[in-house]
User: Fold this.
Amino acid sequence: MTTGRLEVAAVPAHGSQPPDGEADLVPRPETFHFIEEFTGIVPLGSVGLELVEGVDYVNVPFTTKPSATGVVGTLTADVSAGPLPDLDFFLYDDQGNELDSSGNFGPNEEVGAPVQGSRTYVYRVQGLANGPSAFRIVSDQQVDDPADAGTGSAGGASGGSVTSYVLRFTVDPITGTVTTQVLE
Assistant:
């Protein structure tokens, strides 16, 4: 094997070069946005076991606009109620396939994926290490049709009004069961 080194003097560039030919520029499609906001509460963290929907995880379904091509969801948890909640965030398609997940430590997470228009997707907020934690999801759909752009009305995770209850949760670590009792 032979190796060598070649040293030459640098040649200053003048910023000109002969053209390679005519470029056929393809116009880029303009992207618009449809923004929705969802709110809810994850009452209890279970270290990701997903024992009871509405207790240690909350599903937040949404339907994409007809011209949607992508979505980004940003989760923020309310930290004013006590210790720093640790929530994880997932995005599922209508077949239950996980498209993206975010499991950072702390209250802020983000997921995103390419999507198809007029289909139902689900954000899942999972309690990992938390007491009752209010959350907010800002959902940003990228849409091609300006008629699909805009903002949606803010909605709760259940899709309706919020009703408050005082609940007692009993966790049996031996059987892995969680029971709930409505106190008020």
